[in-house]
Amino acid sequence: MSLTNGWLDPNLVTQWIGNEGARSSLGMFIVRWDGNQTQAHKETASIPLRIKRSLKAVAMRFAKLSDAVHGWTLSSSSLILMVSVAENEAESNNEDEIAAGRMTFLLRDLSIRAFTDFRGSPSLESGSSIRYGFGWILKSTAMAIQSDSDSRLALENALLSAYETAWHRMFFSGSPIIRFPLPEYPVIPSDFDFKVKYKPIVSLLDGSLYGFEAIPVKAHSGAAINVTDFYRNADQAGQLFEADRRFREAAIRGFPSRNGDVKLFLPVPAKIIYDPRLYPGSTLRRIEAANLRAEHVVLVLIGGEEEQAATIKAALSHYRNQGFRIALSGIIPSFTSLRRMVELHPDYAQMNVDWVSGKGMNPVEESFLQGLTSLTRKEQIVLISNGLDREELLPALVASGMNYAQGEWFEQGLNEAKALAPHISASIRAEINKRYQGATGTLSELVVPVKLFSRETSVSEISRHFELHRESQGIVIADNERPIGLLMKEKLHQMLSGQFGLPLYWNRAVGKIMDTHPMIVDESTSVEQASHMAMAREPDKLYDAVIVTREGLVTGITSIRSILEWVTLTRMNDAQWANPLSGLPGNEPIRRELIRRLAEGRPFAVLYADLDHFKWYNDQYGFHKGDDVIRFTGETLLATMRAQLKCDCFVGHIGGDDFIVLSSGTDPVELARDVIRRFEQGIEAYAGKSAGPVLDRSGHPLEATGLSLSLSLLQCHSTEGWTPEHLSEKAALLKKKAKQVSGNSLVWETISENVELSPEAADLTAH
């Protein structure tokens, strides 16, 4: 090992590259002492001798313990080291990063020991820290250095680039590797005395329990410990490996499920893969000892925005090679965070949604949530919302298409048996029903018979079944006709076609290899809802069959192809009946919705909306302006309905300037008044500059000043004996009364069995 006297001497690198048996990748570490501001101001001309000696001790110990060190130099308060990775350690870019990370761990431990052995004065240590940065000079065989001047210039540029990269990482890292003053000996922080708590993760697709995330809590008080701080503190104390190992073992040992029906979300620090004591497969062995499989566990990488992307990528590759699914925590609704998520492409992404107001869906929140869910669906990333702490947030999340959620509201509804309280599942299903209200067609129309097997059936027998029944794409594993697993033919063939597939699986029970977390839905589920549930699955399960049940017993399966074909045809049919101007459902969907609500027999309201003086407006300003007003009216009705917290609403466009709203679960009169308020606020934008009186259809002048909205409201307290035709006749009479009132008006009437109340009228433009 040679000591250079100059600053970044290229001769050292040239000499090293020319050595026989040179390694393939060369990098640079910068270890820098940062004094407190007062100390730095006093000693701008020189660095304390004790600090220089400590940095020199770090370099010498590092070089003695690792043959990867090829040169080092001291420059002011910085130690610069040149290190390399052997060819057999650098088979991929990720292996390069892992090797560099492991050297970082060793360097950090040596620095702690050196600065503990050579303690400085309290005034010197106070407010000081040690930071580090790393940059690659040469990656593998990317640059062949010769003795000519061009190659020497390229080498000098590579050195400067590595120095800039290391410097940037050093000063933009979240925290230094050492903070002073140091204790006499590194100790585990007090928060290390912990126990494990399991936070439920609930499906917003069907209201079922999807999994548990393990989190550390204080052993005595039970207070939650921030898992990021938990690992950061352990890392600062030099005890990250011990903290991670103890937490993993405790979380796996105490997991409340052993049959794979729910998933374990296990937080792990991303940088732990750099610790040389972490052997590949150690977590997998612990999981298998607990009667779990890798697909039952989702590893939540802890590191957040502070962790380098290379570290996260290396951790993703390391754990995916062992069969684990990966979740990325700490996603926030910002461009940088979302771009990072897309680039890293985890299987799951956890995002906090405490920014959602929950007081009705305002357009900004609605559009943003829908955009986030669309992005993750396109990238095939399963999105989990954190922070659902109150029930008021539920409608917004379900309406946006969010897949899964966790929060205090779910924790409060968890009983001692770790089962979800019925009222929580019921609330979620109620919101889901609102989202798919009016959807036609159920899975009972698509189900096909399927062969059932027990979990003890051998894989060889399953394979022979697929050979004899080539049309079969999957089988269901059941216990007394209740589904407990699924096995697709394609996945079985993939396992058997591996290098040791036949001897490893042929005589094993199918229960050992089946998917223990398949999609199981009741036959009464709408096809549209089932399609959303199916496409929200993990990427490798997107095209697995769906198990269909009746009262919990298997009736058959259906393929994702059948579901998507049905949805496509239905949407084409709906588009045929949609109004081309507003995009709202037309007369046939309106009729179907009226029939459905009358058949249910529950109270609901019918609100008819009609624009006054619309013909005059078209003649005065042109049809294109009239079309804009039609679209504005439809959007106003939609926005009003979406702003209701607990409203089962349907908005349709009868034609021309006539609209209809069907609603239940809210005060219909107040709902209609809200429509008027929103209409008044926005219609002024469509008023033209042309002067002249408003004319009726015969050309006679009116006292009106412009467009207005007439609303007629039927409150159906009883549906007995009513038909869509009878309701239309009743509404037509009521609409005439509304149009007799000048300005924006609302007329309503309550109808019930054998009882008819007198209509009431109100001019909402009068104050």
Entry keywords:
767 residues, globular, CBS-domain, Alpha-Beta Plaits, eight-stranded mixed beta barrel, TIM Barrel, alpha/beta, seven-stranded mixed beta sheet, 4 domains
Shape: globular
Tell me the fraction of residues in β-strands, as a range.
15-25%
* Percent of residues in helices: 25-40%
List segments where confidence is low: pLDDT < 50 over at least 5 consecutive residues: 1-6, 37-45, 141-147, 754-767
The CATH topology of the largest domain, please?
Answer: TIM Barrel
CATH level-four homologous superfamily name of the largest domain: EAL domain
Strand order of the largest sheet: 7-8-9-10-11-12-13-14
Note the gap between the termini: 91 Å
What is the second-level CATH architecture of the largest domain?
Alpha-Beta Barrel
Helix and strand content put the structural class at alpha/beta
Can you summarize the main beta sheet? Answer: 8 strands, mixed, barrel
Q: Average the pLDDT over all residues and give the rounded result.
A: 80
Number of strands: 29
Q: Cα-atom Rg, whole angstroms?
A: 34 Å
Helical region count?
A: 25
Look at the structure and give the CATH class of the largest domain. Answer: Alpha Beta
Q: How many structural domains in the coordinates?
A: 4
Domain EAL: 177-427
GO molecular function: cyclic-guanylate-specific phosphodiesterase activity
Protein name: EAL domain-containing protein
Domain GGDEF: 602-751
